[in-house]
Description:
By secondary structure, the chain is mainly α.
Amino acid sequence: MPDLTEVLKSVLSLSADDRAAVAEKLLASLDDVDADDAARLWAQEASRRREDYLAGRAAAVESSEVNMKAERLFR
């Protein structure tokens, strides 16, 4: 079975339409996750993001900037 890095490299090389189809399938697969698993997964993700921020691998973004970008994307 390929590892996550290989899968991501392959998927990111696809066209935008194909990446959207993959994203849709992946999101649909999460519908089967129960509430306890979802909470555990979000806690892990929050912890990973915090560690990335503290280690300087990620930067904070102002909420106003996020809102403006979202508005541009969804017009």
